[in-house]
Amino acid sequence: MVIKVLLVDDEPLVRAGLRVVLEAQPDIEVVGEAADGAAVVPLVRSLRPDVVAMDVRMPLMDGIEATSAVLRTVAAPPKILVVTTFENDEYVYGALRAGADGFLLKRARPAEIVHAVRLVAEGDSLLFPAAVRELAAAYGRERGGARAREALARAGLTEREEDVLRLMARGLSNAEIAARLIVGTETVKSHVSAILAKLGARDRTQAVIAAYESGFVAPA
């Protein structure tokens, strides 16, 4: 399967660099570019990308607003990969909370860029779990608290679903979780789907953030 990617960044050199790196891969195609988040929704509707590589800071509409707009207005929205200069950035955490599936540093090596796009497209593992943990430690406490704890309690996760959520937070893939719990991969997929549904999470990234913000999983 060819992964279709939309590039969104106000710096032409960044877009050009990402295009060169991604289009060198036989399974990735860059289908379009935009210089601001305000152009994302129409392009997503017309181009139907699988992944949007989105700058988090842009002049008219930033990556947080653009992510929210895509998820709010587009049916079957694409995966969103936030592209940022600084990893320990409250904007990045805001984008993840808004529904972005992961983030990528602009200084990342070509192999890391390609890996990030593929991993986000597949959606069965958490991208850069240690960095997500650090963001949760820095910003999650003020965003979470009692409301997040109550939401997790209302979700009514089973004991096995709690085990799976803990392993998701550590960045394990479905196959790795299956091996750890000595169950089949399809069983893990069913547990993950149930966790997302109960938490009202778009994907595993949002589920893990909910786990951190509620204190179910400790960031440290």
What's the helical proportion of residues?
55-70%
The largest sheet, given as strand count, sense and whether it forms a barrel, is:
5 strands, parallel
If helices are DSSP runs of H or I spanning 4 or more residues, what is the number of helices?
Answer: 11
Q: Which class best fits the helix and strand makeup?
A: alpha/beta
Outline type = globular
Terminal CA distance: 38 Å
Radius of gyration: 17 Å
Order of helices and strands: EHEHEHEHEHHHHHHH
Please list the strands of the largest sheet in the order they lie side by side: 2-1-3-4-5
Structure at a glance:
The chain is α/β, with parallel strands linked by helices and 220 residues long. The chain is built from 11 helices and 5 strands; from the N terminus they run βαβαβαβαβααααααα.
